[in-house]
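Sanity check

After download, print the first record. It should look like this:
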Amino acid sequence: MGVICWAAIVEIAYQVASRCDLGEQAASKETLSAYADARSALADRLLANGWEQDGLDRFRAQQGSADASTQELCKFDEQNDTGKFLLALAQENPETIMEITDSVLAIPGPPRWGTCL
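Expected structure tokens:
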């Protein structure tokens, strides 16, 4: 997985975890903090490698549905694969989030999508 792929996954996970009412399956404060830290670290890498802030903002809006209303973003079926994936991301272990982030940031060269999902 490449930096850009992980940045896209982190973005949708952050948006769902921070904006959706997931009840008992809600993300912990530690998980939200880990996603925020990962977003920041990934943004730093992208901006340091030729991305402009407006391009990063567009990427985040597109990949994380940041421009979608909360109602629209959070309307997913918890029984289908996408819903299960989003719920699993919202509940991810904070250490795992940072381990993956560190591993993709260690990939030399300019950020790439890599093998994504």
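If your output differs, re-run the checksum step. Summary of this record's structure: The helical segments are 3-19, 29-48, 53-64, 70-73, 81-90, 94-105.
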